[in-house]
Amino acid sequence: MDALARLGMESDLPRDIQNTEAIDTVFEDCKDFFIKRDGITYAGNHLLIDFWNARNLDNPDQIDATLRRAAEAAGATILHGHFHHFTPNGGVSGVLVLAESHISIHTWPERHFAAVDIFMCGVCDPNLSVPVMQELFQAGRVEIDAFKRGRVSSTRHTGR
């Protein structure tokens, strides 16, 4: 324990994981980016977006630039991005790591299809990303499934 204290790793948190009152007090003092809206507290908004009959699905640089603009439109902070082109004229897979979570994409040019996953916490609005991506993909059909992730229960978990 002394070695951990010298490294600054000693914790004042209780070791008893059943002590939820103490843990709740610690979390109340921490700034987090959970969303509180319409009486619900949750971690973030998660969109699963399918672009069908889409174009421009095989250029990783163009997709990277568009997803960066989409993240900025949503109010997100870009930390890192990586995009991979599978073959000439092949699909692209990539991810933008955001301070508020991520945007990922997988494209199938041969099927004119792109699958996009956007998860954002805090004040970001992932819905504002969709029109930016649609400018590039010009999809004939866009399907969106939306989820509230990490809903906080109003009752305490007792471990039973």
Automatic annotation (TrEMBL):
Keywords: Autocatalytic cleavage, Decarboxylase, Lyase, Polyamine biosynthesis, Pyruvate, S-adenosyl-L-methionine, Schiff base, Spermidine biosynthesis, Zymogen. GO terms for molecular function: adenosylmethionine decarboxylase activity. The modification Pyruvic acid (Ser) is found at S101. Binds 1 pyruvoyl group covalently per subunit. InterPro entries: AdoMetDC_C (IPR042286), AdoMetDC_fam_prok (IPR003826), AdoMetDC_N (IPR042284), S-AdoMet_deCO2ase_core (IPR016067), S-AdoMet_deCOase_pro-enz (IPR017716). It is an enzyme of class 4 (lyase). Its EC number is 4.1.1.50. The active site is at S101, H106, C121. Is synthesized initially as an inactive proenzyme. Formation of the active enzyme involves a self-maturation process in which the active site pyruvoyl group is generated from an internal serine residue via an autocatalytic post-translational modification. Two non-identical subunits are generated from the proenzyme in this reaction, and the pyruvate is formed at the N-terminus of the alpha chain, which is derived from the carboxyl end of the proenzyme. The record marks E100, S101 as: Cleavage (non-hydrolytic). Its cofactor is pyruvate. Pathway: Amine and polyamine biosynthesis; S-adenosylmethioninamine biosynthesis; S-adenosylmethioninamine from S-adenosyl-L-methionine: step 1/1. It catalyses: S-adenosyl-L-methionine + H(+) = S-adenosyl 3-(methylsulfanyl)propylamine + CO2. Belongs to the prokaryotic AdoMetDC family. Type 1 subfamily. Heterotetramer of two alpha and two beta chains arranged as a dimer of alpha/beta heterodimers. Catalyzes the decarboxylation of S-adenosylmethionine to S-adenosylmethioninamine (dcAdoMet), the propylamine donor required for the synthesis of the polyamines spermine and spermidine from the diamine putrescine. NCBIfam families: SAM_DCase_Bsu. This is S-adenosylmethionine decarboxylase proenzyme. It comes from Bombella pluederhausensis.
